[in-house]
Amino acid sequence: TIGIGIREVLLTSGCPGTEAKCIVRVEECRGPVDCGWGIPISEGLACVKMPCIYIAPENRFKYVWKMLIPNKTAHILPKDSAIMEVCRDTHSVTFQCETQENGNKIASVKYTVYATTEMETKKSRRIERGQSRRTMTDAILVFCLVTGLIVTVGVIFAIVFMIL
After folding, report:
1. 65: buried, middle or exposed (CB in 10 Å: 19+, 13-18, 0-12)?
2. N or C: the chain end with fewer CB closer than 10 Å?
3. Domain 33-114: which CATH class?
4. Stated pTM of the model
């Protein structure tokens, strides 16, 4: 796992009945503290919901949200919850959430929230890509149809020639 998580300890022999694997226990496990880049829970054109790394119960941890500013000290936000919702601004912003337990950082995840204009640009690029794919698909279909038509006409002529 990355950061904090749950791991199942499996037994692969000696399980009851004909089971090939059986769960012995479920335990908390820890991995590297820096979990890298996360994927938002929900992302729309206006706002983004981002989760910190946590396991139940979420109130057992402290969450420190930071706004990362290039070449400057990170700005600590007054937000102590596992999930943060941010609305898009005129420029991209990178956020980081540190999950802490007993004063120790046990997990950290980052998110980049793109500006509204960048999201509109990405959306229009997706539409353009979709249209270019559609154009390519249409060209292939037309080619197949014309080829099929030519082959069919050729076969009909061959049959008529053999009959005559």
Report:
1. buried
2. C
3. mainly beta
4. 0.55
